[in-house]
Amino acid sequence: MQVPSYKVDEYSLLPDQPGVYKFFNSESDLIYVGKAKSLKKRVASYFVKGQGINHKTRRMVREIERIEITLVNSEFDALLLENNLIKKTQPRYNILLKDDKTYPYLVLTKEHFPQIYPTRKLIPHRGIYFGPFASVKAMNNVLELIRSIFTIRTCKLDLSPEKIFEGKYKVCLEYHIGNCLGPCEGKQKEIEYLQDIEQAKHILKGNLGIAKSFFRDQMQKAAESLAFERAQYFKDKLELLEKYQSKSMVVNPAIKDLDAFAMVTDEKNAYVNYLKVKNGAIIITKTVELKKRLDETDTELLLTAIVRLRDQFNSDADEIIVNIPFDENYEGLNIHVPKIGDKKNLIELSLKNAKYYKQEKLLASGEVKDKKFRVLKQLQSDLALQDLPDHIECFDNSNMQGTNPVASMVCFLNGKPAIKEYRHYHIKTVEGPNDFASMTEVVGRRYKRLLEEAKPLPKLIVIDGGKGQLSSAVEALKSLEIYGKVPIIGIAKRLEEIYFPGDQYPIHIDKKSESLRLLQRIRDEAHRFAITFHRNVRSKKAFGSQLTEVEGIGKQTAERLLKHFKSVKKIHEASESEIASIIGQAKAKNLIAWLKNEKGG
């Protein structure tokens, strides 16, 4: 089909009808796509003098060599077509929505005994896709819910009637632990399986109310027929659904389905937050950045975000609430600014998210240089430090009932975690559970190493603990003759009290202060890092002890395996040949047999 094409000086010949226009330069590159209620009037506005167009638009107009148009039935149709063309071609002068992330979906396959599993690739003939989900965590929550309620298979077998009848398959572990009803051996009829799939589809679409009604009806029917075990079965499923729904940010069940959009802007960009509400609960939240190209109005920017985000997250909600009033109505879009009630609260929540995203982006880019170290400056003031604490190190010990004592050190640079600088420590010189002596050891080892390597010392040392742990760390600094050169504090967990060396009384930073939140974050990260390391050490030691039960494997061989594979999980995943390359073929066979037996048992 030939598309109507016009030379630049023929814009007056364009029809007075709604449609989409495309501008091409002398090299036939598409440089801009726009929509219009009247193509003739809108395109003419670029070329008629005295229209007050800005310098960016003038620069684009100078490049236009040819114009193509597509007629549509309404302005709303023009809006949708414009969005599709921009998404596909990404012209240089159009608004750029910065979001290169590939989102995850759940696919319900088209086959006998359909599967449900995650994917990032959309292959239409494979099945029905649900999503995209704003995060992998959100997707996994839904998938976990479905698998906990329904017995849907996780295998990849071809479960055609012929192959099941021929007895090609045997039930696996999933059947024996109750996660599958064994359709591969014909133990479950396909019609019963598809009933579960039908309810799972409602949940995937966000229609939890339909699934809840189904389980409630089944529970009542079972109770009426005195089948109390079956009634309890459906009650458990219903409670799982209600528990899942309670984890969502519930707004108000009376709100039903709507989309909320809030936008804040600066000279170069706009930041738009999107909240998708289904059955009174927020099920998706997403914030994006739009880069301005031609000094677009706020409504143009917000409209672009509305169309693209609704398209991306497959929203068909009839109602759209925003924080910026629109001068005109768009047929097909019910857009308004709420004035009171829960909807107004929802928009305020969305606006709060947009403002926070903008602030984080500006701080990360360094554009707001005055604010970049605002929190660090506040911390410097609160602790009366001589230097800005742009390099902070925090220590924590971990042991359980005195076993496997370890410690951790985390490092924050410019208020952000510097993960490559994190360190783990095995306690070497202390016998038994002695947190104070352990703290002296690890702090001494850390700064002795930095001094030997001539590396810079931190601007602040934080000790996870009260006066006792702080005093122990101070001993280490004194032994290295650097006490007084590096500020050091202790933070006690219970009341978030800050202790200074030699001071009997702690100080309290305002609970709402950003500087206290930074200290808490650093302390919590050190604690998490220590606990994780401690668990790994205990797991390795326990597993190492178990390995010595295998014929031919002693303590040294077990240690060699753990040293090579680094973790218990990797030993479980290793092939026989990989293991044999470390301990020999005979021992590897014995170990593989033992691992399989342990997994099966």
UniProtKB/TrEMBL annotation:
<comment type="subunit">
    <text>Interacts with UvrB in an incision complex.</text>
</comment>
<dbReference type="InterPro" id="IPR000305">
    <property type="entry name" value="GIY-YIG_endonuc"/>
</dbReference>
<dbReference type="InterPro" id="IPR003583">
    <property type="entry name" value="Hlx-hairpin-Hlx_DNA-bd_motif"/>
</dbReference>
<dbReference type="GO" id="GO:0009381">
    <property type="term" value="F:excinuclease ABC activity"/>
</dbReference>
<dbReference type="GO" id="GO:0003677">
    <property type="term" value="F:DNA binding"/>
</dbReference>
<dbReference type="Pfam" id="PF22920">
    <property type="entry name" value="UvrC_RNaseH"/>
</dbReference>
<dbReference type="Pfam" id="PF14520">
    <property type="entry name" value="HHH_5"/>
</dbReference>
<dbReference type="GO" id="GO:0006289">
    <property type="term" value="P:nucleotide-excision repair"/>
</dbReference>
<keyword id="KW-0234">DNA repair</keyword>
<dbReference type="InterPro" id="IPR001162">
    <property type="entry name" value="UvrC_RNase_H_dom"/>
</dbReference>
<dbReference type="Pfam" id="PF01541">
    <property type="entry name" value="GIY-YIG"/>
</dbReference>
<dbReference type="InterPro" id="IPR036876">
    <property type="entry name" value="UVR_dom_sf"/>
</dbReference>
<keyword id="KW-0742">SOS response</keyword>
<comment type="similarity">
    <text>Belongs to the UvrC family.</text>
</comment>
<dbReference type="InterPro" id="IPR038476">
    <property type="entry name" value="UvrC_RNase_H_dom_sf"/>
</dbReference>
<protein>
    <recommendedName>
        <fullName>UvrABC system protein C</fullName>
    </recommendedName>
</protein>
<dbReference type="InterPro" id="IPR004791">
    <property type="entry name" value="UvrC"/>
</dbReference>
<dbReference type="GO" id="GO:0009432">
    <property type="term" value="P:SOS response"/>
</dbReference>
<keyword id="KW-0227">DNA damage</keyword>
<feature type="domain" description="GIY-YIG">
    <location>
        <begin position="16"/>
        <end position="95"/>
    </location>
</feature>
<keyword id="KW-0267">Excision nuclease</keyword>
<keyword id="KW-0228">DNA excision</keyword>
<dbReference type="GO" id="GO:0005737">
    <property type="term" value="C:cytoplasm"/>
</dbReference>
<comment type="function">
    <text>The UvrABC repair system catalyzes the recognition and processing of DNA lesions. UvrC both incises the 5' and 3' sides of the lesion. The N-terminal half is responsible for the 3' incision and the C-terminal half is responsible for the 5' incision.</text>
</comment>
<dbReference type="InterPro" id="IPR010994">
    <property type="entry name" value="RuvA_2-like"/>
</dbReference>
<dbReference type="Pfam" id="PF08459">
    <property type="entry name" value="UvrC_RNaseH_dom"/>
</dbReference>
<keyword id="KW-0963">Cytoplasm</keyword>
<feature type="domain" description="UvrC family homology region profile">
    <location>
        <begin position="264"/>
        <end position="477"/>
    </location>
</feature>
<dbReference type="GO" id="GO:0009380">
    <property type="term" value="C:excinuclease repair complex"/>
</dbReference>
<dbReference type="InterPro" id="IPR047296">
    <property type="entry name" value="GIY-YIG_UvrC_Cho"/>
</dbReference>
<dbReference type="InterPro" id="IPR050066">
    <property type="entry name" value="UvrABC_protein_C"/>
</dbReference>
<dbReference type="InterPro" id="IPR035901">
    <property type="entry name" value="GIY-YIG_endonuc_sf"/>
</dbReference>
